[in-house]
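Protocol step 4 of 6.
Sequence for CREA protein (Aliidongia dinghuensis) entered exactly as in the expression construct, tag removed. Do not edit the line below.
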Amino acid sequence: MLVAAAIAGAMSMGALSVSVGTARADEVGGFKNDWTGNRIVVEAIADPKVQGITCHLTHFDRSVIDRLRKGNWFEDPSNSSIACRQTGAIVIGDIKADEAGEEVFSERASLVFKSIAVRRIYDKKNDTLIYVAYSRQVQDASAKMSVTTVPLYGTNATWTGRHP
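Step 5 output, structure tokens:
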């Protein structure tokens, strides 16, 4: 019974797409990209500490047919892409300005071990926000990542927190 429930959950995979960070993803589009029903999902993510910036993250969602053919019931590929743009007046709260930045969003891509995360890094010298989408695994770490930048030059960004 437990195995059947787990397989049913894997078939819907929606249960595995859970935001863990402070940001929440809203699915804004998606389409099937092959005959097996595999999908490319497009999600919008608003940075919780930076108003006026929206990131769009795309990732792969495996179909039931693909899961039956290839196994790995509880796992989606780590492939993702990100683009972030100014979508309103930029108001920057208290963000971490060290070289590691801070995680903005995370969503599981497998039942236990893998997630896709988005991290924001502030490039002080170039006055730019950098957003990196990457895969995080417990074993066999993946180097799959994507990067986008939002330059603050000319945006009249307001800092409500400490300006680094």
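Step 6, annotate. The chain has a mean pLDDT of 75.
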